[in-house]
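[Automated response] Your request has been received and processed.

Submitted sequence:
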Amino acid sequence: MSRKQSNPTTTQITTDISLDTLQSMYVTMVKIRMFEENVAEFLHPNPEIICPVHLYIGEEAVATGVCSALRKDDCVFSTHRSHGHYIAKNDTEVYRENRY
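Generated structure:
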């Protein structure tokens, strides 16, 4: 990433990331957000589930950015709010199966 200053009040950031990659990353972030919102909707009216679930809402870009730099055979291990990492690593079966 490089910064080019056209004048003192405007900064333009350029990247080497392709438009296809950026679009794919955006789709991943939306998938994570939709999954997390579905989990929140499912848990809210259900008083039988007592343990807390730490949602990943607002953190989607972290897992998406990290996992976009990984190879297919790389592994991810997360101990907290790991739903986003799981979905971002392209294992979207959990996303499809849990669309309520």
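Summary generated for your ticket: Strands lie at 2-7, 10-14. The chain has one domain: 18-97.
If you did not submit this request, please reply to this message.
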